[in-house]
Each structure stands twice: as structure tokens, then as C-alpha cells.
TrEMBL record:
The lineage of its organism: Bacteria, Bacillati, Actinomycetota, Actinomycetes, Propionibacteriales. InterPro entries: AraC_XylS_family_regulators (IPR050204), Homeodomain-like_sf (IPR009057), HTH_AraC (IPR018060). It holds the Pfam family HTH_18. Keywords: DNA-binding, Transcription, Transcription regulation. One of its GO terms (molecular function) is sequence-specific DNA binding. PROSITE patterns: HTH_ARAC_FAMILY_2 (PS01124). Coiled coil: none annotated. Residues 157-254 form the HTH araC/xylS-type domain. PANTHER family: ARAC SUBFAMILY, HTH-TYPE TRANSCRIPTIONAL ACTIVATOR RHAS-RELATED. This is AraC-like DNA-binding protein.
Amino acid sequence: MSPGNVSLRLDAPPEVVGIGVGRHGLRERVEQWLLPELHSIHLYDYQAEVVVAGVAYPIRPGALSIIPAGAPMEFRYRGPSEHVYAHLRLPRRGRAVSAPVMQDLGDEAASVRARLTAIIVAPAARKSAELWSLLWRAATGPAGPDPGAGPDHPAVAAAVAYIEENLARRITVERVAGAAHVSASHLNRLFRAGFGIGVAGYVRQRRADQVEHLLRDTTQSIGSVAASIGIGDLQTFNKFCRARLGASPRQLRH
């Protein structure tokens, strides 16, 4: 993290650990937070100040902050204050893009707030796709990335949501394209333009990312982790881990 900016790895959707509406400043005017492993997003509707890793940022209505994992936060409220928040775990690998720690969404703030509020009770895949799109918007500006690239393209967003919901099932490019309402060839072009790999390669990468996360960061059984990506026997799963992650499941766990 450089002053004023945060580095984000956005080649794959984030894992949404929590999202909701926070109400603060009711009793304490100063609150300190530290999320060692999670990035946090806040969309504000009040005036205050937040100090992130020793740097102070003014908070104004319509401002969006992205605070990196491990950065100490101190919120200085002026009174009762409400914001929408999300706590995310970003991929460990992939290219990094830069986004401002604090930016003004301007006229977009109301619509972004409405979308974030709407997904609080949405399925995990939709939360992930919506917040992924918001992070890309934050990194690239209001115009967003090239509409042929990244999750801002409606077909790509729909495809990503379908993939996230079906990692434990058999996924074909044709089924993903059907969910996105485009042809398989067109969807492959969109994925290659945005992510540098086709749909099938993206599915393999997402399964590898999920396996690595579950083995390293949770106590979920190895058999259960294998089942989460649709592999029913441990021998096949062992081959998958060695081929995609360079180590056996037990080595990854320890």
C-alpha cells in the first residue's frame, strides 16, 4: 500500500466474508479496527474522518473507501453515522491494479448504495460478482474498463456468477454461455480479452484458487474440499493439486 492508494488483485472474484449496514458513533466517537486478512469497503453517507495506516482521509457523503488487509483503521465520528460495508478476501495471485483508498462516487453513489444494500441477503456468487465489479470500477474510474474485458461486461458478470455457483458441478463452456445469453465463442473472446484465458481455463483457475484457500485457511476436511470442486475421489484430487498447485493436499494444508 502506497499513501493514497491500495493494491488489488482482481483476476478472480473476491470471497465475500461479510456485508451489511454499520451504525457507529452512537456512544463512542472514536473506533479502532484491524482486519488482518480482509480488505474492507465502506460507502459513506456522513461526514467524518478515517485514519488508515497513519494517513488521515476526510469522509464525505458519497465517498467510497477501500482499506487493505492488515491496515489499522481509526474512525473519528461526529455523531451517529451509517455506512454500507463489505469485508473481502482477495486472491493471493495474479496481476495487481491500483485504486484510491478514498474516492468520491459522485452521482453514482446512490445507485451503488442501492445495489450493495440489495445484495446483503443475495446468494454468495451474486455478492462476489457485484463487489468484483465495484472494485474494478474503483480501480479504473467511472468509465470502467473496456466493455469487452473484465466483470463489468454483463455477459461476463453473468458467466462468473454461474461459475461460482457451480464449481462443485460439471461445467461446460456451452452451459456457461447459455447462462450468459451469448454464444460460447463470443464468451471465450470476452474472457480472453478480460482475463487472458478462456472460460475453461478460468474455471480451472477458480477451482484451484478455492482449493488452495480451503486447504490453507480452513479446517475443512480434504474430502470435503475435493467435493467442493466436484472431485469425488482423493486420488484424482491429489493429481489435481499436484498439477495445478504444485503440491499434494496434505502439503498444502501444512
